[in-house]
């Protein structure tokens, strides 16, 4: 091995899988953003916590930066290695370590895929409720690092609500066991919650003890067509007041066209500007009749133009595909993405200003937006015109994002709802956090990672 640093690492850990082939460097060195050219030093695939600790201590001695890597499904550049970093992939650390029926917890390694966690929970007659379209490839460690939310936050909350305990390797190579699955624990600072959402800048999640809950109640899925944006919050308020909602997701007709072109089937005839996919408890005939009654009220008030209710699991999956298939259908266009949030009560005012801003700043450019209205989270995807080169397109989008960040600041919102800050949004962190908060964040980072080797350049710049 030509690099003496890697030779030293191999000497310390002879069993460590260490990849240096060009194809591997490209594959593991990027995430879904595709905006940076991968250029990692190597890819380390440890199989044990001890190996992770040895790697981190080696990195400190050799001043090598580490990029923790899970499923690399992130959209903010948080898992990009473009400056000679060592990518530390947890994909081999993907086992179930313990199931506790009394505590109703599942302990897994950080590299376990979300879908496998969900399937394991179902095998024990329980539910791990955090869910989103990337379930088949994203990892639990990555979910925890970004406090991932998804389509059922309205019922179950974000990832942090479901983490009972963590084992984390800090930037200094120490192993912390945080909270140990306790329900009540008021003995000092809760570092577990601090690590959740820290984007790999404070520590590497090697194990997680996850809370499980009862299986979901029988439910029904409904697709609604809406005549205008003003009806969106009216319908949400009506359905939330009279039904037990599990999810309430919206998207535009433009988004629908892309999903249909990608192979999905149209469920409602005609063209409508806005759509909602909602899922709600339907335990018995009374609840099912109530749902039809609520739909009728929305129809009478002019808030809904049309709708369809799934009559089978296959139909329910087909309706959900119209929402969950949006990101995949847009991926070939490599869209510029914004992932923002405001308080639910602030959604109408923000939506009005956001639409005006996007229309003014992106004339002739297709902008696809959709999101989780039930938790105030909107996803904005800007598609590059074929006649505009990428540098000019990115420069334009960055200008608009600065304006969007200012609008969010006025509404008390966040520039990152669930994708993290990463490389993409670090320039806009001050729109969400005060200077005092950012200074404290830097101070915390220095305590957990004194030499700054963990995911440098993500979250905030390293220079100031």
Global geometry:
globular
| CATH class membership of the largest domain | Alpha Beta
CATH topology of the largest domain: Uridine Diphospho-n-acetylenolpyruvylglucosamine Reductase, domain 3
CATH architecture of the largest domain: 2-Layer Sandwich
**What fraction, in percent, of the residue positions are helical?**
25-40%
Sheet having the most strands: 7 strands, antiparallel
If you average the pLDDT, what whole number results?
94
Q: What is the oligomer described by this structure?
A: single chain
* Radius of gyration, taken over Cα atoms and rounded to an integer in Å: 23 Å
**What is the domain total for the residues?**
3
Q: What's the helix count?
A: 15
**Structural category:** alpha+beta
Sheet-strand content, in percent, reads 15-25%
Sheet with most strands: strand arrangement:
13-10-12-11-15-16-14
The termini sit apart by 36 Å
Tell me the number of strands. Answer: 16
Uncertain residue segments: none
How would you describe the overall organization of this protein?
This protein has 3 domains: 1-216 and 433-464, Uridine Diphospho-n-acetylenolpyruvylglucosamine Reductase, domain 3 (2-Layer Sandwich), CATH 3.30.465.10; 219-327, Alpha-Beta Plaits (2-Layer Sandwich), CATH 3.30.70; 334-431, Alpha-Beta Plaits (2-Layer Sandwich), CATH 3.30.70. By secondary structure, it is α+β, with helices and mostly antiparallel strands. The protein has helices spanning 4-12, 22-28, 49-62, 114-123, 140-146, 153-156, 191-195, 230-242, 253-261, 285-300, 313-324, 326-330, 347-361, 390-410, 435-448, and strands at residues 17-19, 42-45, 66-69, 86-89, 96-100, 105-109, 163-170, 175-178, 203-211, 219-226, 245-252, 274-281, 306-309, 336-341, 367-372, 377-382. The radius of gyration is 23 Å and the shape is globular. The mean pLDDT is 94.
């Amino acid at each position: 091995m030509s690099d003496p640093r890697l030779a030293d690492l191999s000497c310390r850990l002879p069993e460590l899988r260490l990849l240096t082939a060009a194809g591997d460097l490209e594959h593991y060195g990027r995430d879904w953003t595709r905006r940076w050219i991968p250029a990692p030093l190597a890819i380390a695939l440890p199989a044990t916590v001890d190996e992770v600790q040895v790697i981190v201590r080696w990195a400190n001695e050799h001043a090598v930066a580490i990029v923790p890597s899970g499923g690399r499904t992130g959209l903010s550049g948080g898992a990009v290695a473009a400056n000679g970093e060592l990518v530390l992939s947890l994909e081999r650390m993907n086992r179930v370590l313990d199931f506790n029926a009394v505590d109703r917890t599942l302990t897994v390694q950080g590299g376990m895929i979300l879908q496998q966690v969900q399937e394991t929970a179902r095998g024990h007659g329980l539910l791990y409720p955090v869910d989103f379209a990337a379930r088949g490839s994203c990892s639990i460690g990555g979910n925890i690092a970004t406090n991932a939310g998804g389509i059922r936050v309205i019922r179950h909350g974000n990832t942090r609500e479901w983490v009972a305990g963590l084992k984390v390797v800090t930037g200094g190579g120490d192993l912390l066991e945080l909270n140990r699955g306790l329900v009540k624990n008021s003995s000092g600072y809760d570092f577990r919650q601090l690590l959740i959402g820290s984007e790999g800048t404070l520590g590497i999640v090697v194990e997680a003890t996850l809370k499980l809950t009862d299986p979901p109640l029988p439910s029904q899925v409904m697709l609604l067509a809406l005549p205008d944006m003003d009806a969106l919050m009216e319908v949400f308020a009506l359905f939330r007041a009279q039904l037990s909602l599990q999810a309430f997701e919206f998207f535009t007709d433009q988004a629908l066209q892309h999903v249909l072109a990608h192979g999905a089937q149209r469920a409602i005839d005609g063209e409508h500007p806005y759509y909602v996919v909602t899922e709600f408890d339907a335990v018995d005939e009374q609840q099912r009749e109530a749902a039809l009654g609520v739909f009728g009220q929305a129809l009478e008030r002019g808030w809904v133009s049309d709708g369809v209710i799934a009559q089978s699991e296959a139909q329910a999956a087909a309706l959900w595909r119209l929402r969950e298939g949006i990101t995949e259908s847009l991926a070939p266009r490599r869209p510029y993405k914004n992932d923002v949030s405001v308080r639910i009560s602030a959604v109408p005012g923000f939506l009005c200003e956001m639409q005006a801003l996007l229309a003014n700043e992106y004339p002739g450019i297709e902008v696809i937006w959709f999101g989780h209205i039930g938790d105030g989270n909107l996803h904005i995807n800007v598609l590059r015109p074929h006649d505009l080169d990428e540098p000019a397109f990115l420069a334009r989008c960055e200008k608009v994002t600065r304006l969007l960040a200012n609008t969010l600041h006025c509404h008390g919102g966040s520039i990152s709802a669930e994708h993290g800050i990463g490389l993409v949004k670090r320039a806009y962190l001050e729109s969400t956090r005060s200077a005092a908060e950012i200074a404290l964040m830097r101070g915390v980072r220095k305590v957990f990672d004194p030499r700054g080797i963990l995911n440098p350049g993500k979250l905030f710049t390293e220079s100031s």
